[in-house]
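Usage

Read records sequentially. Each one opens with the input sequence:
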Amino acid sequence: MQKHLSSHSDLRLAELIAALSLASDLGVGQPMEFALGSCVLAVRLGETLGFSESDLREAYYQALLRYIGCSADAYIMAAVVGDELAFRAEGAPRRNGHMSEVFGLMVRQIRHANEGASPLHLAQMIAQGFLAWPRMVEGFIGSCQVASRLTARLGFDEPIQHALLQSFERWDGRGIPGESRGEHIPTAMRVVALAQDAIIFHRLSGVEAAVAMARERKGKAYDPRMVECFCQQAAHLLAGLEEEPCWETVLALEPGARPSLSETQFDAACVAIADFADLKSPYTLGHSRGVAELAAEAARRCGLPEADVVTIRRAGLLHDVGRVGVSTSIWVKPGPLSEREWERVRMHPYYTERVLARPPALARLGALASFHHERLDGSGYHRGVPASLLSPAARILAAADVYHAMLEPRPHREARTPEAAAEELRGEVRAGRLDSEAVSGVLAAAGHRVRSTRRTLVAGLSEREVEVLRLLARGHTKKQIGGLLTISQKTVDHHIQHIYTKIAVSTRAAATLFAMEHDLLADVG
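and closes with the structure output:
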């Protein structure tokens, strides 16, 4: 682990898990804040049932953590039904109902995924879907095991870990894996299962629909006593959930102690989230860890302060968490993507930013992480911002992501050799899409020989100040510099005064000599 200036972060455990739940919402095809709403309902129902503080705390966190294994079975599910997110979204209301409805949905999804196929081919695909059902069940079990293991890595005690292994058990014993029934299922998980299905039906059709669903499944999927309590007070228990700011409500509702993460725990949590994201596809396993380490070492070689190195490493770990919001069928497609599929791919940095938008300790990382597909010429996504808005950290993260991805196989190509990946990065620099200094730092960090890995922060100059100095030394006027960097002339003058102060000069000529002495002119022709 990295050393930090402080042993305590500014992040509550509940804040981290609430943010992670937003990602798992995307991964199961639900609207963001689905898990937050179910957490509120589970705690309210638990309080009405007279739960102890310990049981309430377990229900609170199980509601947020129940689907963090969702990326583990996405590949299996997508192989059978195509768009697994659509299947999960449409299947959620049916999950604890009649299996015939689930199988009917599976057939419709297979038909949709194979639209235009011959009747014979379609019949074969449907038959293969039914034959693959045991694999899908194994995937559900695997997702529970992954959720349990990730929860252990996030520091939760054994009762919560164990309960997550029983996420899809039913009161009547006909759940998955079908090893527990009735009161042998942990109390908190029983209330969470009811609460999450009630939230789905409430969102679709209101309180009456949620009550009707609970009564129909009483003694089958759910604990009868819990169903009766819910149905008697459903209007009160569900009040405001369609309109309240769930984030604030959930944080205020946390039962018992409200611990904050140490810096070491924060790092460990970022690694766990990286693995959660990378499980989405067999082609991305270990990708986020690799990008994080490469970007952090490149940042050091570029002279960024240690605090920035820590930030870049964490942002690298978290940069692809938005991937879970895009169907695995797209990530593993061997042929060219359609424009509609590309639009979905372009959304994943946006999803990363939204998942990490709260609280401030995560928002800072999310803002940086969401830039990993931006390019200097404005051709990147999801914002398409120009070079003037890309910080040194963002440029390094983008270069590290490209290089590491080149070393990994993808469905449409073999893995590149390190030499081929390095040449491709240099080509991106020549094309004006990646920053030369960031690429040099990444290549040096990866073990390639580079001509120079000069320090970005010479004399404490920021990257923007270095850009201004380069143009100033080349003879550009303040007005021309402003036009080239899309900033005001007043801002240019402000930068120049800061540059002169930092390098202890008062003239353009002396500043030019300083730039030459420190090899700061290479990126300007």
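Summary fields computed downstream for this record:
- The chain has three domains: 11-250, 262-445, 458-517.
- The chain has a mean pLDDT of 92.
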